[in-house]
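Now for today's protein:

——
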Amino acid sequence: MDEQFPHNGVAAYIALGSNMGNREQLLLSAISLIDEHPSIKVNRVSGLYETDPVGYTEQPPFLNMVLAVQSTLSPIELLRQLLAFEQQLGRVRQIRWGPRTIDLDLLLYDNVRMDQEELTLPHPRMMERAFVLVPLHDVLDQSHLLQQEVGAASEAALLDGKEGITLWKTINWRSASEPFES
């Protein structure tokens, strides 16, 4: 573990998406894998939103959500772990923005800003995507630097009907080992 990261971890936000197979079950499996990792704790989960595909549109609709987590992994270590979880859940990368069993994107990591080949933080396209902004707004800490910007963009996206996003279901997911924190 990198010494600059505190032992109790830092807040990070992860976007999840699926449009192949049992979408809801794949998202729940991803949450479990993430939370079972000894260096990651899921604190909050957004609602599940059904969204029209963006970019490559000849594919089924997605279910999208965002997790608020606490992690002692560095940003790159967390990204690599998310990619390993994708592989475990059958992710195959064939068509850019194409159909997928699971997509796990690191959106924010504390207030870290970085631009490297492997990882850019904050996620470079998150402010353009209602399927990220709306569920992120559900779980973003009220004191986060981007709270106002995300809130305003999320509301605008819902009002405009942008990207065909609708609340599909709320889930009452909780870590089995810890009481739920709001």
About this structure: Confidence is low (pLDDT under 50) at residues 1-5, 175-182. The first strand starts at residue 10 and ends at 18.
